[in-house]
Write a structure and sequence with these properties.
Helix content: over 70%
Number of helices: 2
Mean pLDDT: 95
Distance between the termini: 16 Å
Shape: elongated
Low-confidence stretches: none
Structural class: mainly alpha
Number of strands: 0
Strand content: under 5%
């Protein structure tokens, strides 16, 4: 795994967990928090892949 891939995945996971935790605190719903975290991690991965070249 290249350093670029590791950086993108690490940043995506950290942002996904952060968004999931904040969503849980706001909504108090596990399914909404998980869905928000997964979507945030996916969006962050795609965005960083196109941004970091």
């Amino acid at each position: 795994m290249s350093q670029r891939t590791a950086l993108i995945l690490f940043t995506a996971v950290v942002s996904g967990v952060g968004i999931g935790v904040l969503t849980f605190f706001a909504e108090t719903s596990y399914p909404k928090a998980v869905l928000a975290g997964v979507l945030a991690a996916g969006g962050c991965t795609v965005g960083l892949h196109s941004l970091i070249d």
